[in-house]
Amino acid sequence: MKEGGKIVQIQQDFNLKNDPIPNEITADLFVKAPLDQKKSEEIGTPSVSFWREAFRRLVKNKGAMISLILLILLIILAIIGPSFNDFTYRSQNIEHSNLPPKVQALEWLGLDGKDSKGIDQYAKREIQTNYWFGTDEFGRDIWTRAWKGTQISLFIALVAAFLDLIIGVLYGGISSFYGGRIDNIMQRVIEVLMGIPNLIIIILFILIMEPGVRSIILAMIITGWVGMARVVRGQVLQLKGQEFVLASRTLGASNPRLIWKHLLPNVMGPIIVTVMFTIPTAIFFEAFLSFIGLGLQAPLASLGVLIEDGYKSMRYFSYKLIFPALIISTIMICFNLLADGLRDALDPKMKK
Question: CATH homologous superfamily for 148-350?
C-alpha cells in the first residue's frame, strides 16, 4: 500500500500467544451439541398445507382469478339486480313494448333509446322511465327478466351439480372400495344409464310431469352423476392399494375411517374440478331445453327462455338476444376457465 510516495507495509497481529494454532486436531476440540427430543421433528421453514399451496397457485392464474371475480359480480347482480326497479319479471305494459335500452350517461355506447331508424322511442311515446336492457313485445323489463333468469339458471345448475356430487361420490366410492362382484354389478348399471340420451329422459319426464324446474333437475340427475361416479371410482382404485392405506388398515382402521379420513381427502381435487365443469354443462343443457321449447315456459324467465324470445325477433330487436347471450356466455366461459385453473392448482404435477 502506497502512502506519500512511500511503501507502508501493514502486518496483522494474530495474537498467537493468546490463541495458538494447534498442530494436531484431537477429539477434545469437538463438543457435542445438546439433543432436545422435543425439537427432533421440528421443521425449519413454515409448513405449507396442500390446500394453501393450491390456493397460491390458483391466485397466480390470472385467467382463473378474473373469472372468479366476474362470477361473483354476476351472482351478486342476479341476487340484487331484480330489485333495482319496481318491475317484476311478470309485469306487462303493452304501451312500453319493444323499447330499446336506454341508460343515462351511457348514450355514447348506443344505449340512448333510439331504434334502428334513429328515432328516440322514449321521446316519441313520452315515456319517462328508462329501461336499461329495453323491453320485450309485452312491455316486460328485460333487465329484471335477465337477472331473474340468471337466478333460475344458476339454481338449476347448482342443485343438479350438488345432487350429482352426492350420488356420484357415494356410488363411485362404494363401487371401487369394495370391488369384486359389487363393483361389476354397479358398473353394469352405469353402462346402461350411459346409453340413455338425456333428451329422451327429459321428454319422458315432460310427458309425466308438467315442464318446469323440477322436471329439468330430475332429468339432469338421472344420468348426470355417472361422470362423477367414474372419476371417483378411478381415483379410489388408484389410491386404495398405496402404502398409507395399507398401513392404516394394518393398524386396525375401519372401512368408514379409511374412506372418510384417507381416501376422500385425497380425491377432493378431481371432485372439485368435475363439479366446476358440471355447472356450465347444466346451464347449457337448461338453456338448450328452454330454447327448443322443452324447458321452462313463459312467463317464467331463464336464460334459455330469454334467448329463445330474442331469437324470434333478432332481426329487428337484436338487443333482446344480445344481453342474455352475453350473460350466459360469460358465465360458461368463466366457469370453464376457473375449472381449468383449479385443475392446474390441485394437480401436484403442475407445481412447477
Answer: MetI-like (1.10.3720.10)
